[in-house]
Design goal:
- By secondary structure, this protein is mainly beta.
- The protein has 2 domains: about 10-370, 7 Propeller (Methylamine Dehydrogenase, Chain H); about 405-480, Immunoglobulin-like (Sandwich), CATH 2.60.40.3080.
- It is built from 2 helices and 34 strands.
- The longest helix has 13 residues, at about 10-20.
């Protein structure tokens, strides 16, 4: 796969478009009322919500990172977590691999929800539903339900990336039983009725329940690469119902090309690129005809060489869990880390350094606690960006002066956080030098908080206190020897 570069003017347009709406993916709602808020750069759990997101979910925020609404592909909830008027879209039971909310270009109040059909059923196809945020006192109303975008039978995959002009948007799906990628252009006038069709990669092989119509499409953050997975059936041998591939995307024309057939792990599902576009991560959800002794895998491919053979041979297993344990969606967060759904877990896995190859990517299986709620298979489908905030750099992070003093610091057994203002239901999170969350203490109230060392190792940490969705303190903390 050859490396390609966008013209300078196209890059400037693209960056302009991203900067204008760089907070639209800052709040995620998924799983059983689970969620994450990235608005203060250090993500924390959102525990209120109405979502019943078994698989594909999507949320959208305004330009300031304020939640607007969210969906599981079947129902739509407003920012107050109430069902939006006309907010029942279909009877998919929230069981579509991907669903997507996208704002109509140059239209302040018009959004589209895109969702395909359950496992490529012959009587249905990709549809969009229109939301008008100027209605219902600014809480939104679904004003158009179930408009078909094509007569062709499509899979459950839907993803988006910006056109090279930085304003328009490409909406990508896949036709079932062929190797046709279908790119619909979304402009200020609406969604094109005729897609750009690219025959590239392998076609689907018909299988039990059309299960390989599930999986994901994923664009790299710079819009030059595309990855595709088909969640095939199990059994022994080299089962061709599975598809895993990566190739090139032309953001000017909508054309997909040069797909590389990657070695799959069977049941391939979740996909995510690293922030620097050099790594592709994938994960499996083995759902049909698999053995109880089998494993699900989280893996990485290094794309930096641009050479197909080198890319194929670069596969690295990041983690594995035995069935019935399973992975789902992978998603690049605004902080530049990749978040991993682990089915029925109260934690998200976190790839803390996804730009790095192999074990250096620093995966932590219990990287982010969800406050008691659980994730299923989906996270948040949106056009990824990482220009909002970068990963926490403990070595250079400067203290944030907020009237909180820590004494003693360094400490060996315990230390006291003393605040000049009263804390009310605040959260203290400790991060190590890899940017990993190693301690979360919730429900802090009063002017004094004691932190016990317990099992924390000697070293340097950053202590972040959040309250009312804002960082109120960020201080360097040192634990010394006994």
């Amino acid at each position: 796969m050859k490396n390609r570069r966008l013209p300078l003017l196209a890059i400037l347009f693209l960056m302009s478009g991203l900067l204008q709406a760089q907070a639209y993916g800052n709040i995620w709602h998924f799983g059983n009322s689970a969620g994450i808020n990235f608005n203060n750069c250090v993500p924390y759990a959102v525990t209120e919500g109405a979502n019943a997101g078994f698989e594909g979910c999507s949320s959208v925020c305004d330009a300031n990172g304020g939640l607007l609404f969210y969906t599981n592909g079947e129902q739509v909830w407003d920012r107050l977590h109430n069902l939006m008027p006309n907010g029942t879209l279909n009877n998919s039971n929230g069981s579509l691999s991907q669903t997507l909310i996208i704002q109509k270009p140059l239209a302040a109040n018009t959004y589209y929800i895109l969702a395909g059909d359950l496992q490529a059923q012959q009587f249905n196809t990709l549809k969009y539903h229109e939301v008008d945020m100027s209605l219902n006192n600014g809480l939104g109303d679904v004003v158009g339900v179930g408009t078909s975008m094509t007569s062709l039978v499509t899979t459950e995959q839907i993803a988006a990336t910006y056109h090279s002009n930085g304003t328009d948007i490409w909406l990508m799906t896949h036709e079932y039983m062929t190797n046709n990628f279908m790119a619909f252009l979304l402009t200020a006038t609406g969604i094109s009725s005729t897609p750009v069709i690219s025959a590239s990669g392998r076609p689907h092989t018909l299988c039990n329940s059309n299960i390989n119509a599930r999986g994901e499409i994923c664009f790299s953050p710079d819009g030059t690469k595309i990855a595709f997975s088909a969640n095939g059936v199990g059994g022994a041998g080299n089962d061709t119902t599975n598809i895993l591939e990566v190739g090139q995307f032309d953001a000017s024309t909508g054309i997909v090309s040069n797909m590389i057939d990657l070695p799959y792990s069977r049941g391939d599902f979740g996909l995510s690129f690293s922030a620097d576009n050099s790594k592709l991560y994938g994960a499996t959800w083995k759902a049909l005809n698999f053995f109880s002794s089998d494993y699900n895998f989280l893996y990485q491919f290094d794309l930096s060489s641009g050479n197909p053979a080198t890319i194929i041979n670069s596969k690295y297993i990041v983690d594995s869990i035995q069935i019935p344990g399973s992975y789902g969606d992978l998603k690049l967060g605004p902080d530049g880390k990749v978040y991993v759904s682990v089915y029925n877990s109260s934690y998200l896995g976190v790839i803390n350094a996804p730009n790095l190859a192999g074990n250096a990517c620093s995966y932590v299986s219990n990287g982010l606690y969800l406050g008691g709620n659980v994730v299923k298979f989906g996270l948040n489908n949106y056009i990824e960006y990482t220009n909002y905030c970068g990963p926490l750099d403990v070595a250079t992070s400067e203290p944030k002066q907020t009237g909180i003093q820590i004494s003693p610091n360094p400490f060996s057994e315990s230390t006291l956080f003393q605040s000049t203002t009263e804390l009310v239901d605040a959260t203290l999170t400790l991060y190590n030098t890899l940017g990993e969350s190693v301690r979360v203490v919730q429900g802090l109230s009063g002017n004094a908080v004691v932190l016990e060392r317990n099992d924390l190792s000697e070293g340097v940490y950053i202590a972040v206190i959040t309250q009312d969705a804002k960082i109120i303190s960020r201080e360097r903390l040192v634990i010394s020897g006994n």
